[in-house]
Structure of Caspase family p20 domain-containing protein:
Amino acid sequence: MSKLHRKVALVIGNQSYSKRPLTNSVNDANDLADALRTIGFEVTLGADCTHKKMANLIDNFADKIEDQDLVMFYFAGHGFQYKEQNYLLPVDADEKITREANIKFNSVNAQETLEMFDDASKFRGAKSSGSGLHTMITPGGTLVQFACAPGRLAADGGGQDRNGLYTKHLLKQIVVPNQHIDLIFSSVGAEVYKESKGKQMPYRVSSIMIAENIYLNPIDANSKSTPAPKTVNIVT
């Protein structure tokens, strides 16, 4: 019988940017953290993180990852691409990034973060502003999903909405019992595309090569979460 693997998540929501504040990123992070806890995830949560706080959260979380963990990293906030690399922005980025040379020292490189988590498992991406995000190279056993297509921008939600469009549908799908991980994220993408009338199309790439089903919310002995050793699933 397959054993249940530990499920751990790092969830970060940044919105209090001085120049381009967002509306729903902290709600998105809080609500996803609550949903993940209901399906058995151990969650580390960060809200409105400075660069120092964000880097420390990522480093400490990476240190705790164990072999065969199923790991989820979720970031809601501003992100941008520069020289074919994706960067996730802390809330103090507007003050610190005043020239190109500041970028790598005052933002978080998404590719490097993904590689830090390469001994475990999963990532959901920024509702980005600016130039959007670039396609990413995924280590083996990784699933990456952007809230929108590379180079495009994602909706943060309207004035009456508690959550951004992508997270709204992620919250609905991620708790569905006995749903295979690929179906969860393809369903999210389909619902976002439908509600936005084709204006927002989530982009997903997967290098998961496991001949077993992976469930985030198994509810019986036949639906075990079974990532292989050193499996990483990153949803963005």
Summary: The radius of gyration is 17 Å. Residues 7-234 form a domain with the Rossmann fold fold (CATH 3.40.50.1460).
